[in-house]
Description:
This protein is mainly beta. It has a single domain (42-161), classed as Immunoglobulin-like. Helix content is 14%, strand content 39%. The chain is built from 1 helix and 8 strands, in the order αββββββββ.
Amino acid sequence: MKNWNKHILIIPLLLLLLCVNTLDARTRTTRKNLRSTQVPVVVLEPGDDFLPDSLAQIDPNAVSLKGYSKRASDSKESFFITNNTEHRMSAVRLLLRYTTMSGEMLTQRTVTVPVNLRPGETKLVAVKSFDIQRLFYYYAGPVPRKQATPFKVAFRLTGYDIPVGN
């Protein structure tokens, strides 16, 4: 019986040592050298050949975009959108223009972003990427390991919804 008591005391000690050793051997999952891309997205001005004249009535400063992100492997584009008006917004319509680094237009499209933004509020949103073949990456983001083409993006506010009631 005395030998059995010694083993009962040794087992918890072994378990404790095993736990201490596994805490030290953990896998590090955080990435080093990350940086924020708080580059403001350029606003397209009226008078541009590719902008409809009806946009002249919409205040281009009602919303602002920052922190645009799209890696070559991403199927979505994300950015921070800020409501610069005195009204709550429930949806924002944007004209997005994608260009090469030399300024040649790749494509232009209109997206509707469903978002609930109070005055002065900023939120991170994501939209489906224009780049379905995943051959492009945003120039201010990380350079991919695979071969891909950098691009720039500019936007123009084409409209927004103000909810009525609660």
